[in-house]
Amino acid sequence: MKRTFLVLLLLLGLSAHDAAAEVSLSVNIGPPVVVGVPSAMVMVPGTSVYFAPGFDVDIFFYGGYWWSPRGDRWYRAVDYGGPWRVVARSSVPRPVYRVPGDYRHVYAKERHIPYGQWKKERGGHGKHGKHDKRGHGGGHGRGRD
């Protein structure tokens, strides 16, 4: 009887230990991964927001930054190829946040500006944004020693 009680107690202890061992799985949808150069850019009418129609992820350009929603998070980058950083939803400019969800369909017939031309029109600030230090002197030359 004593032996049965000890075996039962041991089994209860093991089952309690197994119940305490839990597995937690968290799926985090990471920042957008963009491969290649946008083929064209399209301006959302009535705004200064552009989108890249050739990508499978939502990518917008506004205010010198690239913006992309992914799940319930927003990401921002200086370059469309990253690195992408998570930003608070309150940091997303209102014109970007207000782009309609069906923008690809709604604005499909808007003027598609070839990416190279779009970049030139923006003064070379397409890929690297206005914060890039390359080109235009970039701190070298221009009267500096």
Structure description:
This protein has helices at 2-20, 94-97, 103-106, 115-121, and strands at residues 40-43, 50-51, 60-62, 65-70, 73-77, 85-87, 112-114. With 145 residues, it is of the alpha+beta class. The chain has a domain at 42-121. It has a seven-stranded antiparallel β-sheet. The longest helix has 19 residues, at 2-20. It starts with a helix and ends in a 24-residue tail after the last helix.
Report, as a whole number of angstroms, the end-to-end distance: 94 Å
The oligomeric state is single chain
Largest sheet report: 7 strands, antiparallel
Q: What structural class is derived from the secondary structure elements?
A: alpha+beta
Q: What is the averaged pLDDT score?
A: 74
Q: Which bin fits the share of residues in helices?
A: 10-25%
Q: Would you report the number of β strands?
A: 7
- Approximately what portion of the residues adopt beta-strand conformation? 15-25%
The arrangement of helices and strands along the chain is HEEEEEEHHEH
**Strand line-up across the major sheet:** 6-5-4-3-2-1-7
Shape descriptor reads globular
Number of helical stretches of at least 4 residues: 4
